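As a warm-up, study this chain.
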Amino acid sequence: MTHPRQGRRRYYDLFSPVYDAFIRIHSRRDDDDTREFLVDAAFLEDNPAPRILDVCCGTGSVTLAFDRRYPGSMTVGYDFSGGMLRKAMEKNVTGRVRFVEGDAAFLPFADDSFDAVTCSHALYELKGESRQKALMEMKRVVRPDGIVLLMEHEVPRHPIVKLLFYLRMFAMGSDDAREFVKGGMGPVKKIFPRVSLSNSKTGKSRLMTCGK
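Now compare it with the structure written out below.
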């Protein structure tokens, strides 16, 4: 197994103590809206014990939202940053959620293991082959009748925020990374035969719903 990008991992390890506070300031109520929108989109109400994997889970906000909605679930949060995972484990008050450290391109789970696999506001940071491998791994571990939910940022409408958004895309360097953030579904459709697109209530995030 290859190691995740060491520089980005160190960045998130260092950022982890203030990450949640930063998100609260940056997103305000929008963060709750997008998280609930993502959980709603899984449609797991008829499954008394769903198996859920949250890839690139960060400090566990989405992972723990699934655990609260489905207390009978087996929910796993997966991330390459030990610092982010430590913050997630501090919030895991029920102790039901498992958190695992590793690379999104190499998921240590058996084929067809999960009813739902999610990845929220994270895939855009992966470049080219790494992103495609991560998507293929998500497809591998989700059950044939399961669902993969990929949430990403929409292009902001506010001129200043939009400028900062494009500056961040430029800093990413890769052409396919810019296409991914701008809304191109090409990289996802190369992996999944069924992909549909929807938007959060605020319109600030988009959700790609994928099936095998």
